[in-house]
């Protein structure tokens, strides 16, 4: 267990149907206690895991496409991760009906060392249509993607997500550990292009940190913010905050909402990073420093010195982008990349 030097700030949201907008607009994490406490799913789970499963079964789409279940042997102790040589994984993925996964979770619930079972990021409106009619959060004019996560005792390695994330615990308890984005160098991130589930992750085992192998992780711990969430609690994880999620009970359900503050036409910056690795990183040092200044001038500190001397109608890609300009630029880039 990690030391909890600093707790995540909290707001009491019991009896509130919509979280404070200022909290959703902030760039700091916050725990929203009781925000989802009024959900029928939360109340069913409070009765028993069986009651929660029966409630979810009411909404299961029929016929439904299979979900992807991540399954690991008891020896991994719920930690989905790489193989020892980082060339593979310690788990497998299986496609199966959601109802079969729920039944499996109930079946292994009494076991002292069950296999780890996890259904991650499953779109609610696709697999459980109607669930949000009774279990939802009012996020104002945001148009979030709502997903459900279901499993037993599991540990998800620290990673970042580009969208803002409101994660609501519907069943079980969760421990969340967050780090500011600037702790990148202290978290020992693994491969960028061979990942567990799409996002690069910290290689540190938070249950038993190896400070001989990862000494800078001690510095990261000084910046950690932690909270334990119970059913009905939620946490806002701002864009690009590192988060480690640990499910503490034998049956857990989490509902999360993702949204971006940027226009829909904007691409993920990860693509720009991959292109920079391919075209900038291995330049001679002096040339790399030159391109660092170019990126500062055009990307990170644009202003009057960047384009003020160019007539507005002639600025083209230097002008504010919109959907049309972005499509044109993307087509030009694809043409160059496919040379």
UniProtKB/TrEMBL annotation:
Signal peptide: none annotated. SMART domains: JmjC. PROSITE patterns: JMJC. Residues 117-274 form the JmjC domain. It comes from the Bacteria. InterPro entries: Cupin_8, JmjC_dom, RmlC-like_jellyroll. PANTHER family: HYPOXIA-INDUCIBLE FACTOR 1 ALPHA INHIBITOR-RELATED (PTHR12461), HYPOXIA-INDUCIBLE FACTOR 1-ALPHA INHIBITOR (PTHR12461:SF105). This is Cupin-like domain-containing protein. It comes from Luteimonas salinisoli.
